[in-house]
Request: fold
Amino acid sequence: MAHRKLDIDGFDTEQQRMAEQMQYLSTKSDAEVASMVDQKATSVRAAITRGSSVEALEKALADPPYGQGLDAAQSANAQLVSEVLMATRAQDINSVVGSLTDDSRDVLLKYIYHGLARPAGFNCGVLLSWHERVVEAGGLGSIIRVMSDRKTI
Reply:
């Protein structure tokens, strides 16, 4: 239920300027980005089938679709990351998180927050257990980096 009748965020010039800058972040069209996510999904699902959670997660986190107007590709990639997280056994989470680079952990944390913001489409229990392990490995700095980063998913 919306309590505002005006979208005051639309009047924020800083947000408008940021949206314009983010538009040029990706040089690919919407169709190209969607095609890349579909190709990535095929290889990620193959890695999940082989039981290689580390490889699947690294592929899913590689080259995330940043920018304005890529909502379909961003949500498809978020679902793909969620599939990897749910397919990973609970006892393997620490080793998977430990094998990721700091940048990959930050991207993973962005996807975790993306899923937690949309509880209807994601398993929040799984996301919270991953959040705990990512913060253990990356420290509180990873949360700050993700919250202050302007490249959102």
Notes: The CA atoms of residues 48 and 56 lie 6 Å apart. The mean pLDDT is 87.
